[in-house]
């Protein structure tokens, strides 16, 4: 894998060290996460973040284990780091870090105090909410090591205050149980019990969210480090609190071995592919319903659109086709009225997506093609056909007797326009495409009408399911005719006089839904049109000159912008409070996942892509370590924004990089 390591110049410089975040997942949607410096900059940072019934229902338990060395002279050296409401950073243990490394995906810190070097490593058990933290004396000594256990028990999106009751901490063998939810064990536990008031999270302040909270100092572990090689370890786990985990040494070595196996199974072509393979593993989780995908860390759960866009890279590109097969079968069983839920992160399924189900058709087709899985094709073809026939019910020219449960085109105005066979969608207050941000309940980029990528996906879906039917020797029914009609209409309607494709045709007037003016065609220069050229059954062959024109306006080192500079509403930096950030989410902000469609379009146009991925490769040690950010600023230096670890960003880079 790519070496990801930093010396004292990065580790000891707070602004540089806090920009670089590490993640250790548990395979369930929980995680440990923090910064190179050890300073917690997000309310989501912690050593034991526990997934609930769904990956999105996470709770923060063990916040930190602050190390403190007691030297033979009696001097006390504090190695932790906290920022406070006052603006002070105290202690400043990062100033004693001589290096940080990711070793087989696991973080390792080394502090130097004269000739004494202390090392910390940590890991989570895969498939269990269980943390091991090991401290080893590398050189020097003797010394005693104290570890202050700072805890809470709260929703990962929230805060806890000293105005309320403190976390309940009960004694247990070798340590304590917190809120009957998780347990801590280690050497020489001493209960404390004290609020730490006004812990500050600078990233939450920058995002316009509540930046401060109060934490509970539950107690302290202490161990001797008499000679090099001596260790002091702590375990923390949720779930069955009576089921004590193996020793920390065993858990850490098991995690390393597993990570190496994950990488080896994918047969990566180079160290970048190996790094991306391990990054991809973080997003594939096991739930009660089977395998699923976390869209991004630290705050996302499962989103169907993200899952299906990422599917080929996460599963087929990493040797996990069997897991992918199970996921696709589960999602097919979750279709309701021919639609996949967009997400259930809000607490209940939301079906407000036009394209998520169309991406599902694409993912199944890619699985069958790459894995040569005709059995899955035969199993899922009735469901795929019902989705398409359900959309076609809105077109009286294509009469069908699809299954009664098939989608009838009424929800959110999604359906086929009988005038041209293209897919139209949109209803007041909803943004149904991947450009789905809303501010105060109003869409920023509603894109009602006939969006270009939705119709590229529609035509691709009709063609893909037709191909699957033919592969199985079955009659595709009205699908080929619907495909041909929609493709002809696409070629007629979407090319614009501006020299690129319209982003939306037959869009409602700007005052939608109240206005009465004629519909119009939106020619804002956005990257959505890339799907018309990049999909396997895309409706158009790319013109090299048009692709170059898009690159000139949209391409950055981290992928395409979501809107061309100089366009109405263009935003340079994805910053500020929730409303400000959502207003700029798709108005210029860079989305690295779009590197996939862009690379495919270039290749279909005969344009070179050899140097296309250099910026994203260099990004791997810059923000979410070893991973790819959700978004980035539209202008230099293109700082990463949004979630620092994002599934479709990793998956699409992994998919299109040359092997």
From TrEMBL:
Coiled coil: none annotated. Residues 20-226 form the Glycogen debranching enzyme bacterial and archaeal type N-terminal domain. Residues 279-655 form the Glycogen debranching enzyme C-terminal domain. Pfam families: GDE_C (PF06202), GDE_N (PF12439). InterPro entries: 6-hairpin_glycosidase_sf, 6hp_glycosidase-like_sf, AGL/Gdb1, GDE_C, Glycogen_debranch_N. This is Glycogen debranching enzyme family protein. The lineage of its organism: Bacteria, Bacillati, Actinomycetota, Actinomycetes, Micromonosporales.
